[in-house]
Amino acid sequence: MSSLAGKTALVTGASRGIGRGIAMRLARDGALVGVHYGSNEAAAKETLADIDRAGGRGFLVHAELGVPGDADRFWAGVDAGLAESGAGAGVDIIVNNAAVGASSDFQGVTPEEFDRLYAVNVKAPYFIVRQGVGRLRDGGRVINISSGVTRIAEPRVMAYGLTKGAVEVFTHTLAKELGPRGITVNSVAPGIIETDNTATQFTTPEAWAAAAAYSVFNRVGQPADIADIVAFLASEDSRWVTGHLIDATGGSLLGV
């Protein structure tokens, strides 16, 4: 029997990149997966189709994050998807993956962009979980996707890094809040991962080689590298791990 058979998982930002990899892995392990997306419906449908083709089960959840009422719309979409899937009202796993990145450095970030970063990357997961704790079953899992830039100083994405630092505080504090119910809360901090976003940043072989050189393995990470860690944290095997941050940067800049 698959390790997540009979479980329901929700993955925000699951239409592309790391979120897509996580959604597909959790579905492969037997979970019914809520595939959340904000704007790219076509990509979300592709993720769901890939889950279906692999023998998994899922449903779409549409809610733009970072705007008033986003958590309400998110949970309304979850409730509708669960009802259509014939599943119970409860959920077992919440993966807060959706995020936006900074487009400017320390000097260039505007107050409006700063507010947008916090609205999507911090406020949205906070209230999604807060509204969802009544639906989250005892023994459940909350997994927050952070970033290696909370450890590795990158001034060009400072504002983004601040939001992920807040996510890490949210993680270990929420772990204490939900611990009495047997719910674990952990963070995963990816490094450079090959996605459609990074493809626009590293456009030459030299740029990819430089990105790979950050890791002690001399390669750029793949979404599956993160999804496999999330799958462990979602499973019963991780029951004694909570309030923890897993560095998933491939040993980037160790000793620097």
What does this 3D model show about the protein?
Keywords: Oxidoreductase. Belongs to the short-chain dehydrogenases/reductases (SDR) family. The protein is of the alpha/beta class. The chain has a single domain, classed as 3-Layer(aba) Sandwich (Rossmann fold). Helices cover 43% and strands 17% of the residues. It is built from eight helices and seven strands. The chain has helices spanning 17-28, 41-53, 70-85, 111-132, 158-178, 196-201, 205-212, 223-234; strands at residues 8-11, 32-37, 57-62, 91-96, 136-145, 184-190, 245-248. A seven-stranded parallel beta sheet has the order 3-2-1-4-5-6-7, with helices on both faces. Helix 1 links the parallel strand 1 and strand 2 (32-37). Helix 1 packs parallel to helix 2 (41-53), helix 1 (17-28) packs across helix 8 (223-234) and helix 4 runs parallel beside helix 5. The model has no long low-confidence stretch (mean pLDDT 95).
